[in-house]
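Mods, move this if it's the wrong board.
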Amino acid sequence: VKEKRVPLLVRGFAAARRDHPTLRLEVYGDGPHRSRAEEVASELGIQEAVAFLGKRPQADIERAFVRASCVATASEREGYGLIIVEAAACGTPSVVVAGSENAAVELVRDGVNGAVAFEPTPESLGRSIAAVIDGDRPLRESTLRWFVDNASDLRLERSLELVTRSYGDALS
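Not the wrong board. Structure tokens:
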């Protein structure tokens, strides 16, 4: 959907490649803006470094988490950010873009389990991706520690408990 801002992700990736010229991007899923994102990759001359893989089985996604340097999303709206948790369970840091409707930002701690791009621009996103790449193994280890330390609070059941309690408090 439009809120995923995949063309922005491609532009941010291109910015990150200035510092990391061998970087590759794999885009999973399909949506109405895939063709525009493919056009952007072509316009920027990076189409050979970007693979649009479409929908894939969960096992393929999990293998991608393990081998990825990071998981990056340019989404302006996420209800929870499950992808952040799934990636962290593999020790893979995440990059997200700050936004008032992006709850995934609440899960990312700069330099601990990823980076937050504070503006929805290719430059800001590219800097955040590059920072995570530069964090290398220490950041991966920190990401896994973050996941282990927070696993009990990251469960869907725990989130539902908190939401239910907040509604109950609001009704009281």
